[in-house]
User: Fold these one by one.
Assistant:
Number 1:
Amino acid sequence: MPTTESKSLPGQHIELGKNGKLRLDCGVELGPFPLAYQTYGELNADKSNAILICHALTGDQFVAETHPVTGKAGWWDQMVGPGKPMDTDRYFIICANVIGGCLGTVGPKETDPATGKPYGLNFPVITIADMVRAQRMLIDHLGIDQLFAVIGGSMGAMQVLDWAARYPERVFAAIPVAGAARHSAQNIAFHEVGRQAIMADPDWHGGDYLSHSTNPRRGLAVARMAAHITYLSETALHRKFGRNLQDRETLTFGFDADFQVESYLRHQGITFVERFDANSYLYITRAMDYFDLAAEFGSLPAAFENTPVRFCLVSFTSDWLFPTPESRAVVHALNAVAANVSFVEIDSDKGHDAFLLDEPEFRDVLGGFLNGCAEHKGLNR
Amino acid sequence: MISGSTPSIRVDLQLIADMVEPSSRVLDVGCGDGALLQHLWKTKGVDGRGIELSQAGVNACVRNGLSAIQGDADTDLKDYPSDAFDYVILSQTLQATRNPQIVLDHMARIGRRSIISFPNFGYWRVRMSLAWNGRMPVTDNLPHKWYDTPNIHFCTIRDFVDLSHEMNLHVERGLALNGKGRPMGVTATSALANIMAEQAVFLLRRG
């Protein structure tokens, strides 16, 4: 989306790392750097009602409003708002674009102050922990000592787990949804397919496409198409498309999109490139691949030793990208340190994407868990 | 939602709740939809967790603001560290476990005290059913046929007490209950209780 000027996007923008840079896992010190975020609801007087939402790989800070680029509803519109599980009449909701992203926070398409040109591949490789460290700088800036809750799905769940492990005293409740404590070999493999598709596009120019006024649209679209399959389930695909043909009566004996499912994927790919930056896709998928909480802390239980955080893990039965055993492994580790943990598996045939869709059981569980936490924390209505 | 008035709970659950000290840490194994945990939180400020086999039960707990995970008494208690709880509760579930002794052993390890309730197979009607009808007993409290019952390890009160002694678990309290779950006014360890009681509740402590 090189056509969109990040600074013209709605929402809040701040410069972080002015006093003390952000030291990244790769060793590079970043700062000052821009970070874009969005808030909903009001922060209460003692700043105890803040919920931080961590977005997924291709998500962004526009959680519950019309998206400024796509014009579509916010990606968690059904979860955030007055009377919804994350009730904006009660909670103060924060969502920041991750570092490495492409909607206003520093990332490969932003200008490198050292050269005056876009970072491109000169942007340092970032990790999930780096994203969380940047978010913590934002929370410090907002003067919030303890977040009431940190919640996120998929890559967002990775950030939630990292938050709870790294800053347990700053988190009252943690809700990792459809996530894992490490990225599996299969998931790294799918990401590599996506990255290779981008890098194989001649318009990528070694990552320097902005200088060449091009955009590796085809590569990024293919990456999105492959990834999109992993977000669904065979049942969901079959129910939606079956072997139905696209606007034709018979097979064409060619390579046009004969099948509806092909047409659908092509559409997903084409629309994605309008809102996402190819290099950001490389960097953020890499951050997910590198995520392994047990490796960093010695073991998974060690990551949560003596944690005061109340956890609620959620998985979906048909999710094969982040299947239930991944959540269960985290639950076992939390049990081993006698942490306060809840775990629900939601029956759904919609695959990984179920966490973004309207699943009444998920909505009820989330609302109930947050209510219970509010009562335990003594959060007034 | 956990705010609101205190719900009334089954009589046998109330007896279990009466054994729990306020503000203690409780693990309820086989917590169902969380009725006991909710009662303990509302009336005694107990920090409770539940394990429940059925996902529907777990989801109901979490919907109501209680902490619960899907799990199995036979396989999942080993994950918990020793002395993590003040009480571990197993209500009407012991007879459905594959290895009751290992379950009791883990309970005693994880919690300072264990509370166990179970149907008494020494109850006279059960004995009569077998003696006179020559059939496996089916009662109001044990409604399953032999081929579809989840209850695979029945015991009498006397059997239970013997096992407790063998495992060096001290009986702090034992209540003999009638079919409605009401206490009968005899101690559970008496010979009369083993015949007259339909259920029993025991509070055990490591010896």
Number 2:
Amino acid sequence: MDSISESWKQGPDRWFFTPEGALIRPDDGTLVIADLHLGYEATRARAGDFLPDRSLKEIQHRLLGLFQKIKVQNLVLAGDVTESQAAFTGRITILDQFLNWVGDQNVETLIVAGNHDRPSSPSHTFQDQVVMDAWLIHHGHKKYNFRELACKGEIIGHWHPVIKWQGRTFRAFLSSPERIVLPAFSGDAAGLDLLSSNIFQKSSIPYECWACSDSSVINFGKIQDIRSLPGG
Amino acid sequence: MTCSGWNAIDPSHQWPAHQGLSHWCNRNFPSGPTPVQSHAWPQISTGQNALLIAPTGTGKTLAAFLPILDDLLAQANHGLLKDQICSLYISPLKSLSNDILKSLCRPLQEIAQSSGAKASPVRVGIRTGDTNPYLRQKLRKSPPHILITTPESLSILLSQPCWAAHFRHLKSIIVDEIHSLAPVKRGSDLALSLERLSALTDIDPQRIGLSATCKPADLIGKFLVGPNRACHVVQPDLQSTPGQSLLAVESLIKADESPYRPLVNQRLTKRLQKSLELYKTSIVFTNTRPMTERVAFLLKQESTGLVDPESIAAHHGSLDQTLRQNVEANLKSGDLRMVVSSTSLELGVDYQSADYVIQLGLSGSVARCLQRLGRAGHGPGRIRKGLILATGPAELAGAVVTANAALNGEIESIRVIQKPLDVLCQNLIAMACLDDQNSDKVFEIVCKSYPYKDLDRSEFDSCLSYLSGELASPAGAWEPQPGEPPRWTAPRIWKAKGEFGIRNSRVARWFRMNVGTIISEESISVESQGTRIGSLETSYADQLQPGDRFVLDGKALEYRRTEGSTIHAKSVSGEALFPRWTSDRPGLSELLAIQLAQFRDQLANLILNGTSLATDWLTKTYAMRPADANCLVTLWKAQLSVSEVPESNGVLVEVFPEQHGTAYAVHFGLHHSASQAMARAVSSRIGKLVGRDLQLTVSDLGFVIHTSAQPISMEDVESLFQTNGLDADVLEGLDRGELIASRFKHTASTGFMVLRNTERGRVRVGGQDWVSRRLYPVVAESCPTHPLVLEARRETMEQFLDLPALKTWLKTAPKIRVRFLKRISPFAAAWIEPFGGDMAEPIQFESADDALMHLHQRLFSVPERVI
């Protein structure tokens, strides 16, 4: 854990932010990621594009890096696991390939449905929300009252927060004591730029922003304050 | 300022042999044929290839058609005219195609009526992107004798077996405005289409090119006919004939004034109102669509007491086709007082009513300036009058040099693009859509076109391998089933035993939906009260909220909602914002940049010898108004007071501190693309010295590099311009920036890797830049010799970077001057970064970790907080 803690940053209630864009609770081996958009290239290909589809391998590679650092018991996929119906077609679907691979790593998977997920096969169990360690995990495109469900807070995806700066895009987490917004785990998602978009700045929730690079997570303070900083 | 250049009538030549046509000509042109018609007749009537070069309004279109009409009418008289396409007219503009249709139908109808017939035996048809499905079918069933089309529609027709049969007896092809096609990929595509067409016909059709401004004529002739055919250039000497052009230059800003927007808008409106009072119909060219909307909107708002606001119109590519056609019709009939256009009216239809042209800002080249000026004063003996309006002293200097070169007739030479592989890929699909093809024969056809005369067989084969999905796949690419070899999704063609063909009918459908080389950003339609107004780019439209107001067609609209692919808006009065559209703004041509650098140098020397000398020189040599001359002198003096004026054969480096680091402004006397090459090399060298990310702004005559590091030493500055390792450093500067990746977005589209128009709507999660941000690195890494990657590099190196010009210039051992300043100099602010450095291109030298850390340090200016 000592070597890991150098690159991970602790958020509320012993949830840790990783440079890969995953949320980890090391105490019980829970890993939460959102917005994988599996089958993104396949979806483009169905519309006529002529591409190499390699995002599945890329996602597996990043997850494997995390699995090697810590013993993960449960992997929660917090919505938009797939890009479209294209991820559910074929004899062995892209989603099957991914889930089988996670199973091979001896990790249990819980899948939350997002606005992109339209499972056609009953073999894939998508839930509207799950509760882990008294935190409500849902995708974020629908509203839930986590207090009514006796939870301490909620974890969502959906927004793909990033910081864009001089041609670079850094994944970002947003956190408050009762809410964590995850970045997209997919490298294909364009992202909502926290430096130019007002959506979170206008929020009444006092979000803190955590930006990720290849091997570090850095706290950028309150999102409402970023633009008024000396160098902003 | 004046220059000669109008045609005289040559009565010596007789009209065509066909009696009806001859009578019609005599009735309409009693003075006889024009010089270009007289000179062209012997070549065209004997079936020879010809390039006709003559100013607008000198009758060259009729010169091309007269022998063709004469032949068709004679065939009809002898009962030999069959239902087959005999002649093809290709124009780059749909508006011009529509105009030619009318121009041909009128004489044919009149000739028929004079002989007592109801309709002419010679039929003319038009097939463009605007032709509706019913008319398309009708044309297919009953082809006209003369078919009018555009390069894109021709490519589609050539991909369809039924049309291929119609072209079998084709005898002649006319390509209008050929100078606008030759230097761009649209021309490469047309050159291939012409060879595809020749391969389908019984005899090699005659080719006729038409152009108003064209240099070098021999090269454009070769572009028209290919490397192995002969082409006669018909260019009557019109210099000795009476006629003149008047081209004035004015500044909207006075000396010591800052060109801030409200002041510029106010002065511009007043100046345009003055033109409204003096001229019947003016055309204003603004270079960009946002500026077109701004000018049209302001003028409509401010001129209500002066003219009917409806007599002022906007015209650009994002306005609805019907609106544009109405503007064109009203312009032609003389019902409009002023039309504001981006670039869309600079070619094509003759607007006899237009008597004044205003160029707002710089046209970039002499050829374009003359082309625009030629939109006014059409007709023998009329004077072409124009004005270049500058919005600041740097633009004013550019305008003076442009006007001077234009009036001296110093037209730039055109360069023809060599073997663009993305266009070849698109044409290979088109040919496969027609039928299964033999690779050897197709290679032979392709090499007959001028742009592909030097194509290697290996390059050709690589395009086929890409289209058939046989090029190396990226590691981890799509596996049809786990463990199978990775593949590319959706290959376009099959390839086996020396032949190739399309995979399925969807590919043919996608080809028809995405044909062409004109790249536009994804857009969304705008409707108001059920009427389509035009379109906005999706990246702009996505940010609109209900109640937001924007200007389109020179009118304020309020955003209501988006339904599917349509924005519903309501017409409102009052203020509104101007939409944003992406465009490549042209830099100055090499000729103009060199002349501008010499002008700067010369003016500085005069000022050093006394201000009055400089002012006299400007007012007498360039006919400048004293206030405008003073505007230039003031800028030069400001520059001289803090730095120096760059010598035209030297380099001036200005180093100055910024809030977050250091900036280097580099001035030298070369055009944008040579400046781009130098900027890449210098960026690479500074980046390696300081190890920090840079931001680069490239302009004509120089560039600015921003860095968060401390200044480098004087010795290091001087070493930035060495010729050793120049090529490698230019490439590194390119690879660390965004230029090639952004060009790949275009080559991937033209080469059919990523479709512009899809049947299922766009996949949006990846965002607008997915192709350059994600796809380019994957393809470039896994397959560095992929034809579309090579094409993105070629396009960047040959069209956006002029490395040969830079190398030639560096061989002159230019003197390097270095100045350390307290802030940005007046010249750097006016010429290189007039809008600040916000749009600078990032050049990356840091790791992602370092870049994030530096961003954090910059924002907080303190170490990271410990939680």
